[in-house]
Specification:
Length: 449
């Protein structure tokens, strides 16, 4: 029998969570949750109950329960709130491996008009009802994978000697180009911008702590309506003092492999719900292929020549989504493209000493068409060079004085990267659109709920 617990002066049976049922075989337990589905067959009801940790099928025999229990459950609608008491019985055919033989139940709230039904709904309808859509099995599975991605990132970096040093959200200037800034009225007429990246602050904390990371929401007023873009997304950004482009690539492949291993181990059930083909995740072990931008361009041209790509790629440009997909399809594992033309990269990138037109930057392109999941590289160390770049990019010099101090006092080679949590989660889940990888997505045309 389950024990009783005191809470607020009320004695009530202790709750058992559905994902813990294996520890209670043969025992009577109390589940607290919501009705997911209800089937009936004559004198038997089969309520499926979810409680946030899982889903279990219950069996209610009319003759085995009090008449008021039968009446309360019969005809109950989806998402009614209820507690169920019953015995745990192993059943090989049951989804979680167990069923509950119901002895009693309490309905806290009867619901009959839950808007999301098992029939197909359009995406816009589901997005309008995101606050409820989160309860569905698939959304639940995706957000559990996200949770594990975040957990994996943190334990990977923490165990590797990185110190968490979060960066501010309100910033006085751009980090990743002025075209995607969200402007905010600060005080007394001063403008602030929502951060695009914590990197510049990471460079300061890296000089204080050696290896650091920040992990928080970042914002881009991106007018792109693609399956890879959010206007608010979470980014983890490690930064290392005395490090180079090469170190960034090594850290990237180690971190991504660690994330995949953790997801495979901790979220096997969820990957099944998502029907994720796991073999591609299993093969995710270092080293990942490293391809120079020049070589990537050669491959894209070849792709055009064979008719796989519509347009001919010109050296000097940034890759579009079809280019990234074509390139990553040439490899099993994620692909690291390095030494991009500096002209398509941010102002702070260090240059290749042999070829000044190239930046010591890298993009990690995920396989299966997921595109860029990581962007990073080595930072410029020269004060004069940075001053020039700040001017060239039309950035306000005075807002970068503190940043230039980092070059005035103990400037050393340093490097880092940023990984978008949502892009990584979409890839791990094998789903089409990143809007499902964050509880409440913010998109070009969506600010609600
Ligand atoms: O390549 P990005 O712009 O790099 C930076 O911001 C660097 N300052 C990071 C650093 O070196 N510390 O962005 C990094 C990653 C991308 O690879 C992508 O995964 C994600 O952030 N990202 C987005 N994710 C969702 N929606 C968007 N609009 C995104 N823009 C970038
Ligand atoms: Mg990038």
């Amino acid at each position: 029998m389950a024990s009783e617990s005191q809470s607020g002066g009320i004695t009530r049976p202790q709750q058992t969570y559905i994902n813990q049922l294996s520890k209670h075989v043969g025992q009577e337990v109390t589940l607290r949750g919501w009705l997911y589905n209800l089937r009936s067959s004559g004198k038997i009801l089969f309520p499926q109950v979810r409680d946030g940790t899982g889903l279990v099928q219950c069996v209610l025999l009319k003759n085995a329960v009090a008449p008021e229990v039968w009446d309360a459950l019969k005809g109950l609608g989806q998402e009614s709130a209820l507690t169920i008491r019953g015995a745990v019985r192993p059943d090989e055919r049951a989804p979680g491996g167990y069923e509950i033989d119901v002895t009693s139940a309490d309905v806290l709230q009867e619901v009959h008009d839950y808007p999301i039904t098992p029939k197909e709904h359009g995406v816009e309808f589901l997005m309008d009802h995101r606050h409820l859509w989160l309860r569905s099995r698939r959304q639940h599975a995706i957000l559990k994978v996200r949770h594990t991605v975040v957990q994996a990132v943190r334990s990977f970096l923490d165990n590797d000697g990185f110190t968490l040093c979060d960066a501010p959200i309100f910033t006085p200037a751009a980090c990743e180009g002025t075209t995607t800034l969200f402007e905010v009225d600060y005080f007394e007429g001063e403008k602030a911008y929502l951060t695009q990246s914590g990197q510049l602050y990471n460079e300061a904390t890296a000089a204080a702590f050696g290896k650091v990371y920040c992990f928080g929401p970042t914002f881009r007023a991106e007018k792109s309506k693609t399956r890879r873009h959010l206007t608010e997304f979470w980014m983890v950004e490690p930064e290392m003092a005395y490090a180079t482009l090469d170190d960034v690539m090594t850290l990237s492949e180690r971190m991504l492999s660690y994330i995949a291993a953790r997801v495979l181990e901790d979220r096997a059930e969820e990957l099944k719900v998502l029907e994720r083909e796991t073999s591609r995740l299993e093969s995710l072990v270092p080293p990942f292929p490293r391809v120079h931008y020049d070589e990537a361009v050669r491959m894209l041209r070849e792709g055009h020549a064979t008719g796989a790509l519509e347009s001919a790629f010109e050296w000097g440009g940034d890759f579009g989504a079809p280019d990234e997909t074509y390139l990553s399809n040439q490899f099993e594992k994620p692909l690291m493209v390095h030494h991009y033309p500096a002209a398509v990269k941010a102002f702070y990138m260090a240059r290749d000493p042999e070829r000044n037109e190239l930046a010591l930057g890298v993009d990690v392109l995920a396989p299966e068409g997921y595109g860029e999941v990581i962007g990073g590289g080595e930072r410029a160390t020269s004060m004069d060079f940075l001053k020039e770049q700040i001017e060239l990019h039309e950035l306000p010099q005075e807002a970068f004085e503190w940043y230039l101090d980092l070059r005035r006092y103990g400037s050393v080679p340093h490097a880092g990267f940023g990984m978008g949590v949502e892009r990584c989660t979409a890839w791990m889940c094998g789903i089409e659109h990143i809007r499902e990888t964050i509880p409440f997505p913010r998109l070009l045309y969506r600010l609600r709920p």
